[in-house]
Design goal:
By secondary structure, the chain is mainly beta. The protein is built from three helices and 17 strands. It has a five-stranded antiparallel sheet. Strands 1-2-3-4 form a four-stranded antiparallel sheet, with no helix packed on it. It has a four-stranded mixed sheet with strand order 11-8-14-15, with no helix packed on it. The longest helix has 13 residues.
């Protein structure tokens, strides 16, 4: 944004113009390695199966795209480094982000065309810190749709808005996730849909912070609370295991999680479990 209603195309300069072979669908600008810099994840898949018969470089099934944020407006594409689940080709459409296993990083659910969905478990090994913010509206709508959350660590500010729609036909976890890097405390400001601001200072990292509209100042006062997350298993009759066991070696890598029976309803039921039961 150059101001005065003018914009500049910085795609190539940012390192994002390296892929033009695929048809892109669902996407997310989310912090996948908890370093405080939002990364870019995109699912792809062609529309016409006949196309690859004549143009082999435009396949029907294609890989996912992951760009790590390097800061200062620069990104780098990750393929093998991010684990085999990223390079695995599919015809994908929607994708949603949330901490499926409550281990403090964002996982990804992908809807594939004519095949079961993919649930990608993110395993962050960097040791970076994080915060999750769950909002409970009282005067505004209870889900706090339309609220804005600002997290400040020193001179660094991150802002997210709570939306009921996050990507192509997808909805993210309503618990907003913020990577903090090496910081162990942060200030949280909430602008509720009715325009009222609310501030919580000196909030410890690595926990879920539940903020109730109208409860000021302290994260532990009345309706506000902070709590460490406990890794949880999905409420499903099928055992979860890692289908692709060799993950990447970078700070954020992904494995494909599936059921013993390749049941397409498994990922959906697990996602429903954390989207609904944990709100």
């Amino acid at each position: 944004n150059l101001g005065k209603a003018t914009f500049e195309d910085a795609t190539r300069r940012a390192g994002l113009g390296v892929e033009n072979r695929f048809v892109s669908w669902g996407a997310g600008i989310v912090d996948l390695d908890n370093n405080g810099l939002p990364d870019l994840f995109i699912v792809t898949g062609n529309v016409y199966a006949e196309l690859e018969k004549h143009f082999a470089k435009y396949p029907l099934r294609s890989q996912r795209l992951l760009f790590r944020n390097l800061g200062k407006g620069r990104f780098e594409e990750l393929l093998e480094e991010a684990g085999p689940a990223i390079a695995d080709p599919h015809v994908s459409r929607g994708c949603a982000f949330g901490d499926f296993d409550n281990d403090g990083d964002l996982d990804i659910l992908i809807v594939n065309l004519n095949e079961p969905p993919s649930l990608l478990r993110n395993d962050v090994t960097s040791g970076n810190h994080w915060l999750k913010v769950k909002l409970v509206g009282t005067k505004s709508n209870r889900s706090a749709i339309g609220a804005r959350v600002v997290v400040k660590v020193g001179e660094v500010t991150q802002t997210q808005e709570l939306s009921s729609q996050s990507s192509f036909l997808s909805c993210n976890d309503f618990r907003l996730h913020f990577g903090l890097g090496s910081a162990i405390k942060a200030e949280i400001q909430v602008r509720w849909p009715n325009g009222i601001w609310q501030t919580l200072a000196e909030v410890p990292a690595d926990r879920l912070v539940t903020i109730k509209e109208g409860i000021e100042s302290s994260p532990m006062r009345d309706g506000n609370r902070t709590e460490p997350l406990s890794p949880q298993r999905c409420a499903t009759p099928f055992r979860i295991h890692i289908r692709i066991s060799h993950c990447g070696t970078v700070e954020s890598s992904f494995c494909l999680v599936t059921s013993d029976r390749e049941n397409s309803s498994l990922a959906a039921s697990c996602w429903l479990d954390f989207c609904v039961l944990r709100r």
